[in-house]
Amino acid sequence: MSGSEQDRVQAIYDEFATSYDDHYSSAAFQEEDHELFKILSPWVRGKVLDLGCGTGLTLSYNNIAKENYLGVDPSPGMLNKLQSKFPGYATLNSTFEQWNQADKGSRFDTILALFGPSSYFVKESYGEILERLTPKGHYFLMFYKQGYFPAHIYTEEDINASKARIDYDLINSTFETTFIFTNYLVATNIPKEFLPAR
């Protein structure tokens, strides 16, 4: 993602942070969250890297020890909201690529990117996510599916830039399994028998 695009997306989420939880508190969104974590929560184990952690959705649905959690998000506004809800949990104001370049060698048992943040990853970094995983660890990355983009918070310019950036062929060739969950293409190595039937 270019610097100017990164700045625009960060500004959007900084502004959205104040009303983000209220916006996603409707019954439809709550049902989507419950369905997601019925699949995912049994696999959220050990050290957790939560990419695009936002206001702390993962922590709302999982009992994770403070010393086992790192939330990474480029929006200070979203991280401030997470810290107010979950004090003492480690967070870092950064993109995945910035963190990955600065951090040397950390490995995680669970790597998450829920409800779209992996759509902003530079495609060359897809494989680098796997390098951060412990040998028996699990990942669960949600990309916007083809034809979908959350247009209620983005400009047409941002939408077009994101659509051009996501490489669906590379996603399918890099990660073990992909399946559609509502508006998202999920890349994961959770065993297929525990995933929804396609």
Can you tell me about this structure?
- The protein has eight helices and seven strands.
- By secondary structure, it is an alpha/beta fold.
- The protein has a single domain (3-194), classed as Rossmann fold, CATH 3.40.50.150.
- A seven-stranded mixed beta sheet has the order 3-2-1-4-5-7-6.
- Helix 3 (57-61) links the parallel strand 1 and strand 2 (69-73).
- Helix 1 (3-23) runs parallel beside helix 4.
- The protein is globular and about 40 Å long.
- The protein starts with a helix and ends in a 10-residue tail after the last strand.
- The mean pLDDT is 87.
Entry summary:
The chain has 198 residues and is of the alpha/beta class.
Tell me the layout of helices and strands.
Layout: H1 3-23, H2 27-40, E1 48-51, H3 57-61, E2 69-73, H4 76-85, E3 90-93, H5 96-102, E4 108-113, H6 126-131, E5 133-144, H7 156-165, H8 168-174, E6 177-181, E7 184-188
Parallel strand pairs: 1-2, 1-4, 2-3, 4-5
Antiparallel strand pairs: 5-7, 6-7
Helix pairs in contact: 1-4
Keywords, separated by commas or semicolons:
198 residues, 7 strands, Rossmann fold, 8 helices, alpha/beta, 40% helix, seven-stranded mixed beta sheet, globular
